[in-house]
Amino acid sequence: MASPEKTSLQPRAARLVLVTPDGMVVGCLPPIPVEVPWWQEVQSVVRAARERHGIDVTILRLLEAARDRAPGGEVTYLAEIAAPVPAEPWAGKIEAHPLRQAYAEPGGPAADLDWAVRVLAGHGLTPTVKPVQVRTWNLSSVWRIPIGSQSAWLKVVPPFLAHEGRVITALAGHDVPTLYGHDEHGRVLIEEIPGDDLFEAALPQLLAMVTLLVEIQASWIGRVEELRAMRLPDWSGPSLCFEIAEVVRRTGDELSEDERATLRRFVEDLPTLFAEVDACGLPDTLVHGDCHPGNFRGTEREITLIDWGDSGIGHPLLDQSAFLDGLPPEYIETIKGHWNREWLTRVPGSDPARAAELLAPIAMARRAVIYQRFLDNIEPSERIYHRDDPAGWLRDTVALLKKSY
């Protein structure tokens, strides 16, 4: 998912409902202006609470938002404090939900940080400054843990993304994050990666990104059963045919009749499309799943492919659609040509360019499948982040299909 680092003209005001570690509701604080509008970015909220009220808080989860979509506006969060402080009465109610993540409950972030400290101790390392909460939402909790002049990064994800640590472990030796450790509860602790997130990468860096991705994917050809053993999602032809049909059915009420008609025809054609893709000669392998330039981090000379929680099993060129989104138009054909040559070098006689063309609407519809999966696995108050996304990606799929029909 795209990074929330870019700013917006719409300001954000954070209203905090305070709870103690035992879950007792203390009350709420009046809205605090924060400089970063993106709801899941909470470092600025923590800082604003300290500056405005002199208290240290840990943001647990979103409770409600005045706007119907991010970013900006007044946003209410549940925030944990060590002990009660003066606060205004709050008339709301905190109720349990079976889909709530452990890191969104009082005591959850502290348990995650305790785990990280134990892992670091196993490497002979000790945090030197208090950990910094960076982000929290339905897809991840992210903390930076200073250790001297460097930092370790703790990321905790829901069960449906928890294969990330297993994948990074299996990719050791490639340009992926270096793990201090991971567990089966969705926690990963990684070494700091020098440089920046490369949203604004120049063309040479973009070409290097494609080379790195193809290199990794080619190394997993013929090893699909190993990927299945890591419990990765299945985006092979038969599975995607079913899942795309399901998301079209479930999202139909949000689409126009014309859009529904186009998608019905697309769903009917999917088995034939996949047969044509198979004939292009590239087998299923590891798919990153969210391979846009912002999920590479580094410098002009070194890059690392991060954020493997969205990875799955499928055709490697499913990754091309997200990568090309938002790039300067003058770069597109050069990047596509490079992508084609990289695969031809590794699988002579294949037709990557034709496969990519056939897969473009399938890759777009896969994103509707992914966001519906998020909605199905997160609690209601957090669905606002993704509520409109399945229908949005299906409309984009229709737009692609109308160019070819």
Beta-strand fraction estimate: 15-25%
| CATH top level label of the largest domain | Alpha Beta
Order of helices and strands, N to C?
EEEHEEHEEEHEEEHHEHHEEEEHHHH
Termini gap: 29 Å
How would you explain this protein's 3D organization?
This protein is α+β, with helices and mostly antiparallel strands and 405 residues long. The protein has three domains: 12-95, no CATH class; 104-191, Phosphorylase Kinase, domain 1, CATH 3.30.200; 197-404, Alpha-Beta Complex (Aminoglycoside 3'-phosphotransferase, Chain: A, domain 2). The chain is built from eleven helices and 16 strands. It has helices at 43-53, 108-122, 164-170, 203-219, 224-229, 237-251, 257-278, 320-324, 329-346, 352-376, 389-404, and strands at 12-19, 25-28, 32-34, 58-65, 73-80, 132-137, 140-147, 150-156, 179-182, 187-191, 196-197, 234-235, 285-287, 296-298, 303-305, 312-314. Strands 1, 2, 3, 4 and 5 form a five-stranded mixed beta sheet that branches. It has a five-stranded antiparallel beta sheet with strand order 6-7-8-10-9, sandwiched between helices. α4 (203-219) runs parallel beside α9. The longest helix is centred in the last third of the chain and has 25 residues, at 352-376. The protein is globular, with a radius of gyration of 22 Å. It starts with 11 loop residues before the first strand and ends with a helix. Mean pLDDT is 95; it is low at 1-8.
